[in-house]
Write the structure tokens for this entry.
Amino acid sequence: MLLPTFEKRLTMNPKALNLESARQSQTKVTTGFKIEPQLKIQFAEKAEELGLTLSKYLGGLVSEQEEIINLLRKEGQKKIAALSKRLALYETSRLKKMFDDEKGKTRHYFSEAGQKIEIVINDLSDVNELIQNSFKIL
């Protein structure tokens, strides 16, 4: 069996999306998709409750979703920048050198209750823990 040519494949699907028509439209365009009946009922009830058509309600959800995604992306970028600054305070070159020098070694410190705590240095956080617990605060 021979594969259809590109031109034939275009004419084989009468439901194919016509993007050019949508791009040139000056009015709203229709979009359709299949969902579970119960979900449609939930959407329709909510739309009715708000005094909207199902189409207007779903259109609003789609528009809001894009806005929410953009807002979350911006907030996420701000949070990443803030956490990166905090991490830079923690992961200093001096701390990294101390980790390299102490990696795999067992060290100890005394807890506030006077118990001897042994710690194997396997991570930067172990060095940080050792440093923080090496000083007695009066």
